[in-house]
Amino acid sequence: MSEAIHVPVLVEESISALNIREDGIYVDGTFGRGGHSAAILARLGVRGRLLALDQDPAAHADRALQDPRLELIHARFSTMTEALAARGITHVAGVLLDLGVSSPQLDEAGRGFSFMRDGPLDMRMDTTRGETAAEFLNRADESELREVIRTYGEERFAKQIAAAIVEARGREPFGRTRQLAEVVGRAVRTREPGQHPATRTFQALRIHLNRELEELEVTLPQAAALLEPGGRLAVISFHSLEDRIVKRFMREQSTADKLPRGVPVRAKDIPPAPLALVGKAVMATDEEVKRNPRARSAVLRVAEKS
Ligand SMILES: C[S@@+](CC[C@H](N)C(=O)[O-])C[C@H]1O[C@@H](n2cnc3c(N)ncnc32)[C@H](O)[C@@H]1O
Questions:
Q1: How remote is the CA of residue 4 from the centroid of ligand 1, in Å?
Q2: Which of 282, 298, 178 is closest to 238 using CA atoms?
Q3: Which of 242, 227, 256 lies closest to 25 in space, CA to CA?
Q4: Residue 294 · residue 9 · CB < 8 Å
Q5: What is the Cα–Cα distance from 306 to 303, expressed in whole angstroms?
Q6: What is the 2 CA–ligand 1 centroid distance (Å)?
Q7: Does any ligand 1 atom lie closer than 6 A to the CB of residue 98?
Q8: Which atom of ligand 1 is nearest to the CA of 216?
């Protein structure tokens, strides 16, 4: 089990944005080590409730947070509607998503997320199911590898990296993170300042294997549908691919349907947009980034149910 701690990002900003009602029901879709959940519980009254999901069984195993108002659910956040319905809940006062991987996941060599520590090439957040990074790298054809690395890593050298992976696995199948980091390091010719050459490839594989963007796409409409009027959705993302999805969704949902010109309808008869944006995108302050470098790329977006 992991000794590593997870320092939660944008806690004050995201929890304030949720506008916690003492007796409300809240969903933390990404429990992790419970940093945000603890902050939600601190604002909830005795009658409030918090349902916290995480697809990583470890997030539930080494938890320190015990509270009768909290229920932990081992599930993907894309099954939120179902998980809540099974508990007789159809509406909630707020949903929080703090996307990506946690520090314990990244720091534990055995999880295979890190090019800094040698470990088995796993990279699954849910270790109970799905294909591991090693299985994917050893079976995918070169064009699939290239597309995954290009799309999810926004990697300029995707073509060279995919070719190098195929060439290397012909000699020895992939099994370890260091092996992949070295193969990628040799294929990437120019380094970005302060970044390991394998950063983008590792990010791409992780996003692909955990279907991170698909999960987000299907979950945002569910979360919005679950909110009661005045309920809030707060999403913290860590890279532009995620943030683009959140931004587009919130923008579309906060724009009322446009009627064709000349249609005789009064403004008050036009149904309101399902969501209203709450403030602008929020980034971490310089002080927070100094304390917690993971906060550097974090963006918080918030919307309220109409
Ligand atoms: C950045 S961490 C969250 C940290 C948490 N807010 C805290 O304060 O400790 C993201 C967590 O979300 C989980 N996660 C990511 N995608 C998920 C998904 N689709 N369904 C459920 N959990 C997911 C990961 O396993 C990880 O534990």
A1: 15
A2: 298
A3: 227
A4: yes
A5: 9
A6: 15
A7: yes
A8: 19
For residue 134 the two structure tokens come to 């090693």
Ligand 1: residue whose CA is nearest its atom 14: 30
Closest-CA residue, ligand 1 atom 24, reads: 101
- What is the pTM (predicted TM-score) of this model? 0.95
Is the Cβ–Cβ distance between 104 and 5 less than 8 Å?
yes
CB 221 within 8 A of CB 95: no
For residues 193 and 156, give the distance between their C-alpha atoms in angstroms, rounded to a whole number.
Answer: 15
Distance between CA atoms of residues 50 and 20, nearest Å: 11
Residues 4-26 have pLDDT tens digits of 688 999 999 999 999 999 999 99
Tokens of 293: 């470098």
The whole-number pLDDT of residue 266 equals 79
Say whether pLDDT at 1 is over 50: no
* Helix extents (H) in the chain: 11-18, 35-43, 57-61, 80-85, 103-107, 133-139, 142-153, 158-171, 177-187, 199-209, 212-226, 240-253, 286-291
Q: What is the pLDDT of residues 82-110, one digit of tens each?
A: 999 999 999 999 999 999 999 999 999 99
pLDDT confidence of 62, banded at 50, 70, 90?
A: low
Helix (H, G, I), strand (E, B) or coil at 3: coil
Band the pLDDT of 263: cuts 50, 70, 90: confident
Q: How far is the CA of 62 from the CAs of 15, 32, 96, 105, 147, in angstroms? A: 23, 10, 21, 12, 36
